[in-house]
């Protein structure tokens, strides 16, 4: 007889793994963004650097951990990587717009605006990731 936790994990394992990887990706993004802006880097460039590094992590982690994509041929990795970065680029546009409104127009706290921004980005990225790996 399966235990309730095992049954729940079996049913929602992909979503749970995505949430964990997404949390780590968000953490990487936010820490890099706040660290770079704290070092007086303009928010736009801090966001681009944080995005590139966190999306690189997310690609690898989503491919291997979340969606168990085993095809590691050069052609497949390049194809999936191009799709992943392109679709994440769409969420970068939303990311940048939210930061522009929150930081430049509303003069909000970088940490608060970035955290709000990441909620929107996570929802967008989940849908995009399912299109690529599922």
TrEMBL record:
<keyword id="KW-0812">Transmembrane</keyword>
<feature type="domain" description="GtrA/DPMS transmembrane">
    <location>
        <begin position="17"/>
        <end position="132"/>
    </location>
</feature>
<keyword id="KW-0472">Membrane</keyword>
<feature type="transmembrane region" description="Helical">
    <location>
        <begin position="15"/>
        <end position="36"/>
    </location>
</feature>
<keyword id="KW-1133">Transmembrane helix</keyword>
<feature type="transmembrane region" description="Helical">
    <location>
        <begin position="82"/>
        <end position="105"/>
    </location>
</feature>
<dbReference type="Pfam" id="PF04138">
    <property type="entry name" value="GtrA_DPMS_TM"/>
</dbReference>
<keyword id="KW-0614">Plasmid</keyword>
<feature type="transmembrane region" description="Helical">
    <location>
        <begin position="42"/>
        <end position="61"/>
    </location>
</feature>
<protein>
    <submittedName>
        <fullName>Teichoic acid glycosylation protein</fullName>
    </submittedName>
</protein>
<comment type="similarity">
    <text>Belongs to the GtrA family.</text>
</comment>
<dbReference type="InterPro" id="IPR051401">
    <property type="entry name" value="GtrA_CellWall_Glycosyl"/>
</dbReference>
<dbReference type="InterPro" id="IPR007267">
    <property type="entry name" value="GtrA_DPMS_TM"/>
</dbReference>
<feature type="transmembrane region" description="Helical">
    <location>
        <begin position="111"/>
        <end position="128"/>
    </location>
</feature>
